[in-house]
Every structure is written in C-alpha cells, then in structure tokens.
Design brief:
- Helices cover 23% and strands 37% of the residues.
- The chain has 115 residues and is an alpha+beta fold.
- The protein has one domain (3-113): RRM (RNA recognition motif) domain (Alpha-Beta Plaits, 2-Layer Sandwich), CATH 3.30.70.330.
- Strands 1-2-6-3 form a 4-stranded antiparallel sheet.
- Strand 7 (89-92) and strand 8 form a beta hairpin.
- The longest helix is centred in the middle third of the chain and has 12 residues, at 35-46.
- The radius of gyration is 19 Å and the shape is elongated.
C-alpha cells in the first residue's frame, strides 16, 4: 500500500488539538493498515520520527431516517507519537573517533497545525 492510501485524513477536534502539544497526532487510517505500515507512512509523508502508534477500531453507529434504520461505516483511528526533540546521534567510529550523524527529522507536523 502507498502512504497516501494508508493515511486517509487527520482528525482535528478539541482533544486532538490538546494532544498535538505533546507530540501525539490523530489520523483516520485504512482499516487493513497495521501499526508498522502506519508508522512508515507517517514518516514518509511528514518527515518525522515516529516512536509509537496506538490504533482503535471505531464501530459504526445506528442511525435512523424516518422508518428506515441503518448503520454508519466503521473506521480505524490511529494516534501517532512522534519524537518532538530529534537529537543528533553520536557513536565511536574507527580509531575511537567520535562520529556525529545529524537527524533530518522535524519536531512537529506543520501541515496539520497550519503553521
């Protein structure tokens, strides 16, 4: 699946706006998508480092129009935790020299917040 097929749309409401301040973003995702696929899709689309993904299957509700009853569609929601403070990685290379690798990840998803 392509990343565009996995992440359907962001969920913007009062609770998700409060969670955004802590680096937690909420998305409506494809029902067949796994946590690993969701994490990869968010990393590719928004250039951020994903640390954790929680998923929830939201059941459809009963709706009634006049005499007829029906159900709204079921869907899947994902809460994605991103690394809000990406730091450079240091390790020892050949000869005991310290090598520094800079991370090219952002600390937030600007496309959702409108910044």
């Amino acid at each position: 699946m392509k990343p565009e097929d996995i992440i359907l749309k962001p969920i913007i409401n009062e609770k998700s706006n409060l969670l955004m301040q802590d680096g937690k973003y909420t998305f409506k995702v494809a029902k067949k998508a796994t946590k690993v696929q969701i994490a990869d899709a968010v990393e590719k689309l928004f250039n951020v480092k994903v640390t954790k993904v929680n998923t929830i299957n939201v059941q459809g509700k009963k709706k009634r129009v006049g005499y007829h009853q029906g159900m709204t569609a079921s869907w899947k929601k994902a809460v994605v935790f991103i690394d809000t403070d990406p730091q450079d990685t240091k390790y020892l290379g050949k000869g005991g020299k310290e090598v520094k690798v800079s991370n090219k990840f952002k600390g937030s998803i600007d496309e959702i917040t409108g910044v």
